[in-house]
Amino acid sequence: MTAFANWLARLLMPLGVVVLPVAALAQSFEAPPSFNAAHIRGIAPTGENYTVRSPVPSDGLMRLYDIETPYGGVAAQGDAVAQMRINELRALALLEKVSSSNTFAKSLANAGLNPLKYTGRLITNPIGTIKGTLSGIGGMFDRIGSGLHNAGKTQDSALGSLLGVTSERRNLAATYGVDPYTDFPPLDAKLKQLSEAAALGGLAVTGALIAVPGAAGIVATNLSTANRLNDISIQDLARQYTAAQILDLNRKKLTEMGVPQELTESLLANRNYTPIDMAAMVAAIDAMKTVRGRAVFFDAAAAADERSNAYFMRRQAELLAVEYKRHRGYEHIATLGGLPFLVAKDGRFVTVAPIDALSWTQQSAARFEAFTKARSQLVAKSTGEIRITGEATALAKRKLKALGWTVVERQPG
Question: Would you state the torsion angle of the CA atoms of residues 280, 175, 183, 237, taken in this order, to the nearest 10 degrees?
Fold first, then answer.
């Protein structure tokens, strides 16, 4: 069982779903399918520095990717995480070209740095660097205040912020469409090296990094979202705001939505979310202005105990916001077995989730029977919709229809 499946199973434990229900034991099940990587929508199976191994297995809910790279194998649970990693690998390929280019080497030399000896270390010329980066005293006070208020919760280094490294990193990452707080070690190391070179080398090196042929060709991005946090786009947050400042904006919005303070602080302290993930998730739920009980979503989100689970919750928030904009007849949010659902005026329970490959395994049957039991306890004789970004097998759709669920496939978002 995958980490995601284990996490979802733990969410179901309060409902008593520890073993399979009797009804499920009497059912017929199927083996989860495998897929040709070249035929999966939204997945480019090969790139300059990666190959998606094929066939791609699934576990009843998600496709389980194994991506071969020069940096080692990369596992990705689900299409959304695989797409995120592929975007990061594409950006990394471009950054590798930059760091080995003549333009970059010349910029380092012009800035007084030796390209052959430069190792990406933070402090090589601290006095000159501090003089060149301390500007905008009001902004600096804001950053320091936020940093103190969020002690222990932010990934920004206090020293790095003062030396201008994190601002260069944010600008560089946003230019290439990746999260500046990425948890992908090769990209993290390359962003660190190049942003420190830019901070130490000033505008000459920064210009060499930003004006890179091919950077504008990155269409897919890990930052884009239609939602805005405090009327600020996610791209602008990634580029212009420190992690501590983003956390403060998240805290403000969560408070406005009526999320209890203890839950707010627990959520913000969850390091499985990057500050950008958190901002995208909070902005998406905040966009559903007329929906009551939005704190319920964050109660589920706070339980994410691995990176892939946190990214699942971020993507679900974004998908729910898209559904809300398309159909405004939703009144409140409820959780069934730990999974958030929108509840419509007519009593229907609707969720939209980044589920890639829904099949009728023993585990998925147990989960959906738990959802059905919880739904019936809240509203007798109720029905619901399971909207997924991927596809479902014919057996899964038949079994779910018998339980009062309609499956809608290939949802946009």
Answer: -30
pLDDT given for residue 397 in this prediction? 97
CB atoms closer than 10 angstroms to residue 401:
12
DSSP reduced 3-state for 405: strand
Q: How far is the C-alpha of 287 from the C-alpha of 259, rounded, in Å?
A: 15
Yes or no: say if 85 and 125 are a contact pair by the CB < 8 Å rule: no
The pTM is what? 0.84
Strands of the sheet containing 74-77, edge to edge, are: 46-47, 50-52, 64-68, 74-77
Domain residue ranges in the chain:
78-217
Neighbours of 256 (CB within 10 A): 10
Cα–Cα distance for residue pair 86/185, rounded to 1 Å? 14
399 DSSP assignment:
H
Q: Name the residue among 360, 359, 409, 407 with its Cα closest to residue 389.
A: 409
* Rounded distance between C-alpha atoms, residue 316 and residue 335, angstroms: 13
- Cα–Cα distances in Å, from 115 out to 16, 96, 103, 188? 61, 14, 11, 20
Q: Is the dihedral of CA 312, 315, 320, 323 positive or negative?
A: negative
In angstroms, the CA 290 to CA 329 distance is 9
What is the DSSP pairing of strand 405-408 with strand 64-68?
Answer: unpaired
CA 90 to chain centre: 17
Rg, C-alpha atoms of the chain: 23
Q: Which amino acid is at 113?
A: L
Among the listed residues 159, 155, 160, the one whose alpha carbon sits nearest the alpha carbon of residue 245: 155
Under 8 Å CB-to-CB from 398, ≥6 apart: which residues? none
Is 74 in a helix, a strand, or coil? strand
- Secondary element (H or E) of residue 285: helix 275-286
Per-residue pLDDT tens digits for 399-413: 999 999 999 999 987
